[in-house]
Structures are given as C-alpha cells and as structure tokens.
Amino acid sequence: MPQLRRRPPAPTLILTALLVTPGLAGCAKAPDSGTFTVLNSATDTHEHAAQQEFFDRCAKPLGVRVRQTSVPADQVASKALRMASSHSLTDILELDGSELPQFADTGGLVPLKDAGVDVTGMSEGAVSMGSFRGTPYGIARSVNSLALIYNADLLREAGVEPPTTWDELKTAAKKLTRGRTFGMAFSATPDADGVYQFLPFFWSGGGDESRLDDGKGAPALQLWKDLVTSKSASSAVVTWNQQDVNDQFIAGRAAMMINGPWQVPVLGAHKDLKWEVAPVPVPEAGRPPVPPIGGTVMALPKTGDSGRQRTAAKILNCLNEQRNQVDWGESVYNVPTRTAAAAAYKAQNPKLGAFADQVATARSRTGRVGARWPVVSDALSGAFQSVLTGRATPETALKQAQSRATAGK
Amino acid sequence: MTTTVTTAVPAPSAPAKPAGPARERRRATLLRWCFVAPAALYMLAFFGYPLVRNILMSFQHYTPQTYFTGESPFNGLDNWRGVFDNPLFAQSLWHTLIFTFGSLLGQFVLGLALAVFFSRRFRLSGFVRAVLLLPWLVPMVVSAVVWRKLLDQETGVLNTLLMDLHLTSSAIPWLSSPNVALFAAILVNVWIGIPFNMVILYGGLQEIPRDLYEAAALDGAGAWRTFRSLTLPLLRPVVTVVLILGFMSTVKILDLILALTGGGPADSTQTLGTLTYQLSFQQLDFGQGAVVGNVLVLVSAVFAVLYLRANRSDFGQGK
Hints:
B: flat
C-alpha cells in the first residue's frame, strides 16, 4: 500500500510512546525470592571476590544467594538515593561510616534491633559509627584507623626513637629530614583523605567538630603548619592523598607518615623496606590518642518485605560472628569490631597491634554532628588548607570554618 | 601556467508542481511534522525535562529525604539566598571566569599557530599532526592524573626539568600554592584543548581558496599582511565557532579540576562546576547544587544564542 508508506504512522508512534513511558517507570525488577542484593563499593576484583566468599559462607545455610552491585566508593550514596527513588534499593546497603547518618536521617533504614541484628560485644566506637541519634542502623564488620608508620632503618641511622608526643614528633621529623627525604609526610588534601588524617591531631589536642572556633583545635593546625614551615614535611602535602603519601614513604622520601592499615598489602610487597607501626603522637605524654574510626557499615533499607528483612538480618549476624570477623579483618587488614575478635586478631597479627589499640580509643566522625558531617568536613579541610598555604592563622581559619559550617543551616 | 576555473553549472530548476487540493497540502504539512516529531520528542524528554526539573529543584528543599519520601517542599528563594551568601560562590565565579578566558586564549592562540604551521605541506606533517591529536583522545581524568604527577612539587618532571635547565632556582609549587594552582590548571586545560582548536582551524584554513594567496603574493603582501588581511577575515566564521564551543565546554569543566586539585589548595581552584558537585554530591544539598547548575546553564545559554546568531549570519547566507 504505497499511500501508507508515504504517510508514516506518526500518531501511532506518539501513542505508543505515551503508552510505553509510564510502563518504563514502573518496570523495577521484581525481586527474586532466592537472591539477596547488596550495594557496596567493592569494585576491586580481589575485594569483590573476598566479599562474595563471605556472603556465600553465610547465605548458603539459609538456602539463598547473594548478588553484589559494586560502584566506586564516592558513588555509593548517590546510587543508593537513585535506587531509593525508584523503590529498587538492595536488601543490604554497605555505606561508608561517615555517610550513614544522612541515610538514617531519611527514615529509609530499619533500626538494627527491629530487624534482629545484634551489636552487643562490639567496640563502643564501632557501634557509635553505625548509629544515628543513639540508635544503631549500621553494623561494621571491621574498622580502621590511623597510626604513625615509620621507616625503622632511617630512624636507627638518625638515632631517633619513634616519637610519642608532638614535641618529639617535631624534633624527630627535623632530624630525619636529610637531602631529598622529608622527616614526616601526611595527606592534607581538601577531601575525606585529608580530613581523616587531620582528625587524630585535632581531637587529641581537644578540638571539637561541633564548635570549631572554641580555640582548642588551633594547636593541631599549628603543629601541621610548623612541620611544613620548618621543612620537615613538604609543602606539597596539600596535594598528596593517602596513596601519594604511601608512595613517598615507599620511595624513601619520607621517614615517617600517617597512614592506615589498608596500605599494609602495598608496604608488605616491598621486602627491603623495614616499616613499623606506632600510635599517632599526642600533645603531651600520657594523654591517650584520639584517632578517627573509619570503615563501612552494613544497613538494611526499608524495602517493605519483612520476611526478606529477617533473612538479610540473619546474613548480617552470621557475617559478624567472631570467626568470620577475624577472617574478614585479616583479608582486608582492618580490625574486627567484636572486642573479643579484635583481641584474637591482635594476637595473630602483632605487627598491626598499634592499629588494633588505636581502634579501642577511636572516635566516630559523625557521633557529634550526625548528618551535618559533610559540611563540617568541608569546613575543616578549608581550615587546614588555608593555614598550610599561609592564607590564615590557625585561629582565624577556625573562625572562618565555623561560620562556613553553620552558614545557611 | 593557467588555472582553469570551473564554473558551477546551474542546476536545472525543478518543474513547478501544480498546487494540489487543500487536502494534499495538509497531508504534506503533517508529513513534515512527522519528520520533526521524533527529534522534538527526544529533545523534550532528554533536554527539556531535566532543564525544567533543575530549575524547579532550585526552588525546592531537595535533600536525601526527598528520595525516600518523594516530598520536596518549595522554599522560595532560600536556596538562591544560601548560594549567594556563600563566599565560595563569588570566588568560584571569579575563578571560573579566569579559568575559562585563560584557557580559551591559550588554546586558541597555540591552536591557530599550529594550524597555520601545518597548513603548509612538508614531510611528516601528517604524522606530527596525528601525534598532536593525542591529548584529545586521552580521557580527561587520565590526563589530569598524569599531569598531577608531572606537576608535583617534589617529584614532578616539570620542576626537575626547569631546575636542570637553570630556569628556576627552586621548585615551583604548581599545585600546592594557591597563587599558582589556578594557572597550572589553565596550563593543563590549554594542553587538552589545543587539538580541538587546531583541527577545526586547520579545516577552516583548507577552505580558503589557494588562488587568493597567489593574488595576495602578486600584490606584494608579506606573510603578516596576508595573515591579517586574508587568513583571519576568511577564517572568522570558524573562529567564532571554535571560541564559542570552547567557551561552553570550558565554563562547565569539572573532572579536570577534581582530579588535578580537588578545588584546592585553600579553594583556589574552586569553579562553578566543582561547587555544584560539592553541594549536590558531597553535602547532598541538591537544591543549592541546582542553583549553581542553573547559573552555569544561564551563562552557557547566553553563549549558545551568540553561537546560533553567528552561525546564521556566517553560514546561513552562504560564504
């Protein structure tokens, strides 16, 4: 029929488009009853496989399977939000500890107790990291923190003991700075890396993230500034992320660094490098260090299916049995959150003892400011960046930070 | 030697169609709309809808809660006030302007110089031109990460080179000083943008008839005079296109700066692009993020209109 060919059936096209569009919006996949879904940031092949092994270990006895969806760490939150708006959130959501309050605040997560997940026997810091307004919403299998990692050979050559106080740190860093090697390295980038590294100094000095301008945080800023002005640390620290700091340390261009246990596999691969771990130095001898606690927490989104939720809760409980926690902690070099598991972990990995000890006194980033943490974190990074680049004194930087953290809120 | 000039043979004019009945004409109109309809629908769905949503969002209290509850109450000008009160906004706007115009200037001047250089034929010209295209093929984030290593204050190749050549006595803090970082970012973006400018301008140069140059040479015009009075005026339509497209892709830049400096040190490389990212995806304040996004859309729209006008006057009426 030539006439029809000449006249494309446009009205039909439009009609079809109109009919199909609403259909598309509602075509979220119906969950398969035997498969449980997880959204996490295990994009690394090795980590993805390790996660799967633990999920399989816990899901098999329940007669179900677990399927992971992994996206880069900085995209988990936005991906989860998109899933939430289309009512297709996964059964288990693994978030960074610092992001949990924002999700709990939405009312979209099930309190762990209601779902039947048990957090007794876990370290206070770990429980606090997964809590929002005192209610646990997320459970951490393992946590990490920061410590001082030093090059044992370089310290011995310079006749320097690992520093325990800020003054010792400054003297030691100065002595260790020779030729192209800096005594000290840390990350001071304007993002989560830099803020995480600043917190052990800020908190141990008495700083309070909910009142940045109370003056107690200034000495920590001064310490960082002193290390850079005395050239014991490179002024390039404002551009070095934690990975860069580790690279500098491995290349022998830094004698000491602040870093976390996730660098252990990389450090361990360099057999000729003799590294040791010590707690982060404190302002005065005898004061306990207050490092930040970090890691991911697993939460249960409200999917409206209580049967599935109960099964998902069982999977979480199983993942957090002592043996599984120790095994998992060893596979990712993080410290188990069960106090008893942490002790077993420390006994089996004496070299990482400093990390295990740090975790005992470590503090959650979101404990005091909750869902406002991202704004506070931005303000803090603004403060140390402007001090390190000579744009402000510690006191003015913290005053500016406080107004930045409270602006428009 | 004589040059043969081929004159275009005028196309035989189509036989005039007898005006059909009204029904026939209506059908023709409908047919025309049917061809436009898919494109129009596509534009509405994928450009119109997000744009309208973004404008609406800038007047709404849009937070993570919204994704779960679907509620996003209108809050008037609160988001706009919040953004304009934020001292970072004015700074970012200023940095965006410096970054955009600095990048355009560098990209255009170097791109044009290279295009003119390569428009003369010589051995290996094609090969060198292909090599110069490489920056264009590398993903932006990869270039930024590589440049971050090259520009590192302590271990960067650039500083080592400059010091070995005794051009500077101490390492330049390319990315670690707030006074230099924006300049370094411009430098990297110029490097990335040169191929685009070169390719388009090279194409434009090829369009200029050779015999005009011969005529200019006969009239005794020197190289500079030829360039100024012949090349540049005839290249004008292409220059407009390059500059406006360059502007629109530079003003919204995000990935390069995020990977290079993350907006630091001390916010010295924050642009409107990074500010939108920070507000929307780090602080999860989507309303305020949308405000900055809208400002960017507005700025781009102004230049898009300029682009369309330039296109119409230069190409629409034939060259």
